[in-house]
């Protein structure tokens, strides 16, 4: 079987020439076409020679006297196509007498066989160019798209390091890194499709070449029948030519071709590429790793029911919303992006907490006209909500003591998701940790939130909760998914 030097699966962009195999097969088809063309010329010249007897056979010899074009594609040892043509030359030299009676049969029967074979080879060449040739172009296009996105990721990871994490939502290295995965997945699909096409072409070539040799054998066999009426000497010479062609094994030339080009042809047993085995620059950069990620429920603005989405807080201090965590099905562009230093975070209440801010996922123009909205989130457990709130609080520009509404939600949420008894404004007070004011941030000038001392006395004394009673987190400290 053909073998090729193993490629490095750790590289996203392979430097191999995708059209190398296609060009090799096109060149081989050209060799076969010229070989059949030699036989066509030979039969045509033989038909003309029937009118001119012995002298004209010198002309016949000239049609096959030159070496085969693309002769390196044929085995030069005895028993192959090159040996067959050498045998034709030697026997043609000994033929000196021909008859006019065979001219019509040669032209009408034998020549048409090789003309049809010539047309089949041309058609095979067109199929190869339109099929595998287009696949190679698609692979090159996909690789260029991946390379450009990898370079874009490199630019913005460098910007992240040099600007202290201040970066636009659309340029967030986390988003760009997922974009690289999306384009890399498409590239590898194109590479694997093109590879499978080339394997199919490669396998079909053995059958096609067997058909070519069978057709040559058939044509020369018909040729022998036409010339049997001639002199015994001529018959014997032509029989020797045909016998040489008949003795060529159907896989003789193919096996020699595979042996000589084992470093170029594709090994069908080699495994296909996988995204999990590919590495690219800045794939594990700290700006691409989420601080916390998982599913949360967000209350809709119109239906007022909770929908579950996938949320991520990145080192760039963005809270991104995605439909799912799948980076392959479609381009993972955030549905919603909040720059937390510009946001106001309320207090956590059981499984719920609110974040007020402006969606910055639409670019500079969209951000200018967008309005601030108060988004209501609900985690799956109070511990998960506390962990999300702690991460968002550390990045938020302002913290308030305002708690989410405690009325029953319109979505089908069981009663255990809500507090046992609703808390009234007179009996609900934020903890000390929730009302400590704003967290300093170099990227925002938001005004500090009111301190606990700013709460009206009636509210400050009634039902207040000591800070020590609030658990810091119900979940281990390392980031995880919920």
From TrEMBL:
Segments forming domain PH: 289-397
Comp. bias regions, Polar residues: 400-418
Keywords from the UniProt entry: Phosphoprotein
Comp. bias intervals (Low complexity): 419-438
Region named Disordered: 399-482
Pfam family, one: PH_20
Listed SUPFAM superfamilies: BAR/IMD domain-like (SSF103657), PH domain-like (SSF50729)
PANTHER family: CYTOSKELETAL SIGNALING PROTEIN SLM1
Record's protein name: PH domain-containing protein
Originating organism: Westerdykella ornata
């Amino acid at each position: 079987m053909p073998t090729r030097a193993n490629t490095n699966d750790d590289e996203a962009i392979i430097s191999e020439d995708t059209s190398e195999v296609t060009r090799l097969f096109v060149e081989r088809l050209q060799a076969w076409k010229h070989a059949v063309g030699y036989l066509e010329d030979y039969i045509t010249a033989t038909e003309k020679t029937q009118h001119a007897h012995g002298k004209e056979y010198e002309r016949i010899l000239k049609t096959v006297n030159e070496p085969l074009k693309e002769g390196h594609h044929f085995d030069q040892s005895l028993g192959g196509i090159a040996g067959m043509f050498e045998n034709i030359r030697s026997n043609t030299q000994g033929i000196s007498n021909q008859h006019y009676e065979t001219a019509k049969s040669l032209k009408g029967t034998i020549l048409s066989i090789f003309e049809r074979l010539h047309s089949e080879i041309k058609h095979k060449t067109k199929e190869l160019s339109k099929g595998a040739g287009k696949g190679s172009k698609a692979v090159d296009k996909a690789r260029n798209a991946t390379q450009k996105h990898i370079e874009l990721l490199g630019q913005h990871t460098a910007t992240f390091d040099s600007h202290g994490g201040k970066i636009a939502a659309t340029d967030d290295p986390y988003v760009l890194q997922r974009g690289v995965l999306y384009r890399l997945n498409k590239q590898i699909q194109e590479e694997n499709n093109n590879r499978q096409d080339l394997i199919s072409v490669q396998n079909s070539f053995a059958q096609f070449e067997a058909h070519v040799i069978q057709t040559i054998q058939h044509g020369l066999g018909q040729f022998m029948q036409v010339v049997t009426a001639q002199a015994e000497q001529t018959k014997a010479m032509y029989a020797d030519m045909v016998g040489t062609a008949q003795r060529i094994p159907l896989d003789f030339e193919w096996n020699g071709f595979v042996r000589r080009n084992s470093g170029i042809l594709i090994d069908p047993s080699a495994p296909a590429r996988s995204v999990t085995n590919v590495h690219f620059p800045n794939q594990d950069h700290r700006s691409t790793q989420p601080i916390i990620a998982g599913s949360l429920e967000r209350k809709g603005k119109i239906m007022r029911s909770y929908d579950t989405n996938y949320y991520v807080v990145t080192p760039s201090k963005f809270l991104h919303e995605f439909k799912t965590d799948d980076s392959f099905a479609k381009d993972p562009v955030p549905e919603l992006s909040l720059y937390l230093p510009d946001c106001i975070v309320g207090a956590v209440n059981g499984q719920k907490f609110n974040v007020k801010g402006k969606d910055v996922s639409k670019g500079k123009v969209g951000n200018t006209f967008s309005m601030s909205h108060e988004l209501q989130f609900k985690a799956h457990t109070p511990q998960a909500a506390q962990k999300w709130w702690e991460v968002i609080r550390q990045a938020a520009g302002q913290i308030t003591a305002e708690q989410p509404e405690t009325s029953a939600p319109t979505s089908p949420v069981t009663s255990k998701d809500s507090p046992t008894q609703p808390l009234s404004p007179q009996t609900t007070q934020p903890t000390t940790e929730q009302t400590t004011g704003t967290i300093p941030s170099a990227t925002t000038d938001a005004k500090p939130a009111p301190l606990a001392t700013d709460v009206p006395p009636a509210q400050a004394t009634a039902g207040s909760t000591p800070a020590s009673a609030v658990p810091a987190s119900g979940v281990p400290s390392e980031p995880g998914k919920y």
